[in-house]
Amino acid sequence: AVVSTQSGHYAGVSLLRYTNYLIPDKAFFEAGIACRAIGWNNMAFVFLNRFLDICDAIEDGSTDMLDHSDFSDTDIPYDIVLPEDYSITEEDREEAKEWVLAVSMDQRVQQVLNTDERGCYEGSLLNVHNNVTSPQCILTGYPVLRGEVVFKNTSSVSNKDDWNVYVMARKVSHSVECQDVLTYLQTSTGAPANPSYSFT
């Protein structure tokens, strides 16, 4: 469930860490579209490029020609299982191809992933410079580097900023999605029925 627009995009990007278990063309397509929707065009370009490469691999029936260089310093796996057929419609595949071709001519867009204060790909739990693995935010899947909210009944944590965004979204929207997230958090972490902001 998406607790807010940006948190949902973070979660979609984080899921790429598990593309050795998920349907890879669908995962990269959805992450690319999500990044494009919030203006992360560099990341969208990388993910949609990967999506198109996976589509070519599906057509060929082999991953041998996949170039992994964009993901060399990430925890996004190279080993994926190709589906027997495309998971994304031909119309959406063509639209993605046209967008990638168009932005490849735009000098403002670079084929790079966003990095964080560690100098690492921002969605990676693993710091490739020192091999330290950060805990995963239970809301977004992004690494928790500082300002964490700790759930007492488990070892689960959340980024403080993402937690506060969730609390605000729940108070303002009263959406089914936000309630679903709270139900999950209560079941898995013992989170309170009326979560409050974290200022510590």
Name the strands of the widest sheet in spatial order.
1-2
Order of H and E elements: HHHHEEEEHH
- The number of helical runs is 6
Mean pLDDT across all residues, rounded?
89
Strand portion, in percent? 5-15%
Q: Supply Rg.
A: 18 Å
The shape is globular
Q: Helical proportion? A: 40-55%
Low-confidence stretches: none
Distance between termini? 26 Å
Main beta sheet strand tally, sense and closure: 2 strands, antiparallel
Derived structural class:
mainly alpha
Give the number of DSSP strands.
Answer: 4
Describe the oligomeric state of these chains in a short phrase.
single chain
Task: Provide structural commentary.
- The protein is mostly helical and 200 residues long.
- The chain contains six helices and four strands, in the order ααααββββαα.
- Strands 1-2 form a two-stranded antiparallel ribbon. Strands 3-4 form a two-stranded antiparallel ribbon.
- A hairpin with a 6-residue loop joins strand 3 and strand 4.
- Helix 1 packs antiparallel against helix 2, helix 2 runs antiparallel to helix 3 and helix 3 crosses helix 4.
- It is globular and about 50 Å long.
- It starts with a helix and ends in an 11-residue tail after the last helix.
- The model has no long low-confidence stretch (mean pLDDT 89).
